[in-house]
Amino acid sequence: MMLYLSLFLSVIIGYGVAYALKTKETSRFNLLLSFSGAFLLSVTVFEYLPELYQSSHDSLGIFIMAGILLQLVLDFFSKGAEHGHIHIDSDQRSFPFALFISLSIHALLEGIPVATSDHVLYGVLIHKIPIAAILGIFLIKTGYKPWITLLFLSGFALMTPLGSYLSQHLPELLEYLPYFNALVVGIFLHVSTTILFESNKNHSFNLMKLLTVILAMAIAYLI
C-alpha cells in the first residue's frame, strides 16, 4: 500500500510545489530536472539493466530500442512533457487529451518495474516530482477550469500505481514481464538522456549542472 501511495503522492507533491511557488517559469526546476535525469539514468545503468540481462530471454535489445521509439512517439503527442518541456498553446481551454493519453501511457509503463526494485522506485519518484511540478505550472498558466486540472492530475497520478499493480497481479503481463521491463529501460534511457541535454539553455552544461549530475550519479551508485 505504501508503494502505491508514494507513487500517487509524488504527483500531488509536484503540483503542490508549483502551486506554492506561484511561478510561470519552468526554468527554476532545471537543476532538479538535471538531478532527476542523472539519477534515473544511473539507476537504469547500475541496477535495472544488469538485472534485466541476467534473464535468459532473447531479443531484449530489440525491446529496449522499441521503448526508445515508443517514447519518441509519445513525445510527439505530449510535446516533451515527460522530460519537462511542454510546448503547447497556452490559449487552449479544452481538455488536453493528447497530452493526458501520452503521459498516462508513459506513467503506466514506468510503474511496471517499481514493485520489484527499490532503486527504480527511487528513480521514478525523483523523476515524477519535478515533472509534475512543471506540468502543474502548465495547467496553472493555461488557466484550465479546476475540474479539468483535478481530473487530469488525478488520472495521471493513478497511472504509475496502476502499472505497478498490474505487474504483480496480471498473469498475462507476468508471463512477458522481461520484455515489458526491456521496453521500460528504453523509455528511461530516452527520457533521462533528453533531460540531461535539454535542461539548460542552449543545451549547454554549466558548472552547477555538472556538479548536480555528478552528485546524482554518486548517490545512485551508493544506495
Written description of the protein model:
- With 223 residues, this protein is mainly α.
- It has one domain.
- The chain has 9 helices and no strands.
- Helix 1 runs antiparallel to helix 6 and helix 3 packs antiparallel against helix 4.
Q: Quick recap of the structure?
A:
The protein is 76% helix and 0% strand.
Total domains: 1
**Biggest sheet, open or closed, and with what strands and sense?**
none
First and last CA, distance: 23 Å
The class by helix and strand makeup works out as mainly alpha
Helix content: over 70%
Mean pLDDT: 86
**β content, as a range?**
under 5%
Query: N-to-C SSE series?
Result: HHHHHHHHH
Task: Extract low-pLDDT stretches.
Answer: none
Helical element count?
Answer: 9
Radius of gyration: 17 Å
Give the tally of β-strands.
0
Global morphology: globular
What key attributes describe this structure?
223 residues, mainly alpha, 9 helices
Record the SSE blueprint.
Elements: H1 2-21, H2 30-53, H3 60-78, H4 97-110, H5 118-142, H6 146-169, H7 171-175, H8 177-198, H9 207-222
